[in-house]
Amino acid sequence: MITARTSLVALLLCWAFAALADVAVPPLSGRVVDQTGTLSAGDISALTQRLQDFEARKGSQVVVLIVPTTTPETIEQYSIRVAEAWKIGRKKIDDGVLLVVAKNNHKIRIEVGYGLEGALTDVTSKRIIDEVIAPKFQSGDFAGGISVGLEWIFAVIDGEKLPAPTSSGAPQSTRQGPDQRGQNNQALGDYIDNNPLSLVILILVAATLYTVLGRLTGSLAAGGLVGGLVWYFFGLLPPAFFLGGLAFFFTYFAREFTLPRWIPGSSDSSSSDSEFSGKGGNFGGGGASGSW
């Protein structure tokens, strides 16, 4: 039993280190997230205002992300991971668009939500990148390339009939407690009672996994970590499944529970666009990529 537990923990750690080798998904701190310092404060402010005005008028959410690199992933792999984590666009309408620029890789990606794939097609997205954005980038005008690219994206979305903008509903919450069964169950219950800080640490770890790995992968990692630790230290399989499932559930629906602002990835209070967040939109890999 000890050998099996040790092997499980080793497997989880190896998997976690391999996953963390990928570029982290940054917190959604605003409509324009520049991790390279390419855009000036004035550029970010102007672009943010245009994106905010467009969302207020049309309802669709469009976000710009600039990162140094997506290596070892392709820009397609990275952008869908970001889109999955950020949930741009309205829930069940799925009208979000993510414009990703990997500056050191000279790569551009337009990631399109399900609801806009009929209008902002792969062909149209490719043309916007190759004919509009890339020429500006080649001359070093990154702000201009993004600006004119957004104009074309706005024009295409404007031609699509979408529901009018509405306010989102209030989040829901849930709460469950551990079961007590036998001596090991009592030991587990006593540990939780006597070490409440452990729960805080687990919440922080879960939030970090959500941010770094994305919604689904991060939730699976959090659930596996919690379940594996309970099984390893207490030898309790049913509580391990229960608590692991609870950790997965909490992490997966973290945004619906509206995580506090001090948890990594929930928001960035220092940003002028700090109230911005995704509204539950889904992506399926539609869009196009290009280079300059």
Characterise the protein shown here:
The protein is built from 9 helices and 5 strands, in the order αβαβαββααααααβ. With 292 residues, it is an alpha/beta fold. It has 2 domains: 32-167 and 279-291, Diaminopimelate Epimerase, Chain A, domain 1, CATH 3.10.310; 178-252, no CATH class.
| Tally of helical segments | 9
What is the alpha-carbon Rg in Å?
Answer: 21 Å
Helix content: 40-55%
In CATH, the topology of the largest domain is named Diaminopimelate Epimerase, Chain A, domain 1
Order of helices and strands: HEHEHEEHHHHHHE
Q: What is the beta-strand fraction?
A: 5-15%
N-to-C CA distance: 56 Å
Question: Which structural class matches the secondary elements?
Answer: alpha/beta
How many domains comprise the coordinates? 2
| Main pleated-sheet profile | 5 strands, mixed
pLDDT averaged residue by residue? 78
CATH architecture of the largest domain: Roll
**Multimerization state:** single chain
> What is the overall shape?
elongated
Number of beta-strand segments: 5
- What is the CATH top level name of the largest domain? Alpha Beta
**Spatial ordering of strands, largest sheet:** 1-2-3-4-5
Brief sketch in words of this structure:
This protein has helices at 2-20, 41-58, 75-86, 122-138, 142-158, 182-194, 196-213, 215-234, 237-252; strands at residues 32-34, 61-67, 96-102, 107-113, 283-291. It is α/β, with parallel strands linked by helices and 292 residues long.
Give a topology summary:
Elements: H1 2-20, E1 32-34, H2 41-58, E2 61-67, H3 75-86, E3 96-102, E4 107-113, H4 122-138, H5 142-158, H6 182-194, H7 196-213, H8 215-234, H9 237-252, E5 283-291
